[in-house]
Write a structure and sequence with these properties.
This is tRNA-uridine aminocarboxypropyltransferase. The protein is 29% helix and 10% strand. Helix 6 runs antiparallel to helix 7. The chain is globular and about 50 Å long. The structure holds zinc ion. Zinc ion binds next to loops.
Length: 298
């Protein structure tokens, strides 16, 4: 499993703690960036390729990633470094991103852009689904510190902006989970460590600018956007939000110019009768969809 991260750059500050994952899954979003389809398609073209001697010609699985920019981690042809700050932003807050392994290989991921804008020692990415004191003593210690927050919405979560006004200890660290809605839920509820920090949420009126990836509801933000809003609140500096969102805006503009479609939220599609798939048969899933249509927080 460790083999899937073959070419990390020396400056990389990602910690792998993941077990088995489905990181190899590629999605249709990748096609827009002009990436060639995997060369597996050539397999059937040679009539004599059926014998075992031809097997050496097979491409090694996913070894041929397009060359990446070492800073923004984007393919070199679509490097977004011109939209990143020249120097990492000065922040005092420590940010921990808990990334679901399936997020890591998505081409249109936002976390590398976020990490490229922040000092290495202030932004750590931990990849995995299960975390414990044994597996990650550092993260465990962080979760137990009084000044640590975890950003995860829910009835128990305090509004971050209000929370900092009368918190006895000013927050020094914030943890954000990076994954789809259900992956984040799985990570949050199945790791008791993440129940230790104070749970906070964002009550922001901004709607996601990450329009090329479908969000479940109109108010859902991408991980980069969450981090941008949370850090600008904690650091009391709106410039942080502006700076962190710039590469995301550039990414979306580029993708839209190259044929990407604006992905309206599932909530928007459902409410306007535009949802392209049949409604689920599973009762629990159907109930979720109905709640979404009626804008009840799930
Ligand atoms: Zn770059």
């Amino acid at each position: 499993m460790e083999s899937q991260k073959e070419a990390r750059t020396p400056g990389d500050h990602v910690t792998r703690t993941c077990e088995k994952s489905n990181c190899q899954t590629r999605n249709e979003e990748e096609e827009l960036e002009g990436g060639e389809a995997p060369t597996v398609a050539t397999l059937n073209t040679e009539a004599d390729g059926a014998n075992a001697d031809g097997l050496w010609k097979l491409p090694v699985e996913s070894a041929e990633r397009r060359p990446e920019c070492s800073r923004c981690r984007r393919p070199l042809k679509v490097c977004l470094c011109p939209f990143l700050p020249v120097h990492p932003l000065h922040i005092s807050t420590h940010l921990y991103i808990i990334q679901h392994p399936a997020e890591e290989n998505k081409v249109l991921r936002t976390v590398p852009l976020l990490a490229a804008c922040l000092p290495q020692e202030k932004c750590k990415v931990k990849i995995g689904r299960r975390f414990s004191e044994e597996r990650d003593p550092e993260l465990s210690a962080v979760c137990q510190k009084a000044g640590t927050l975890i950003l995860y919405p829910g009835a128990e979560a305090a509004n971050l902006e209000e929370f900092i006004l009368d918190s006895p200890v000013y927050p020094s660290t914030i943890i954000i989970i990076d994954g789809t809605w259900s992956q984040a839920k799985d990570i949050f509820y199945k790791n008791s460590l993440f129940r230790l920090p104070r749970q906070v949420q964002l009550k922001t009126s901004i709607s996601s600018q990450y329009v090329i990836r479908m969000q479940p509801t109109n108010s859902c933000l991408s991980t980069l956007e969450c981090a941008a809003v949370a850090l600008s609140i904690l650091e009391k500096n709106n410039y942080i939000q502006e700076t962190l969102l710039r590469p995301l805006q550039a990414l979306c503009t580029f993708q839209l110019q190259h044929g990407a479609q604006i992905r309206l939220s599932k909530e928007h599609l459902l409410k306007n009768g535009l949802y392209p798939k049949p409604m689920p048969k599973n009762k629990r899933k159907l109930r979720k969809m109905e709640l979404l249509m009626n804008s009840v927080k799930i």
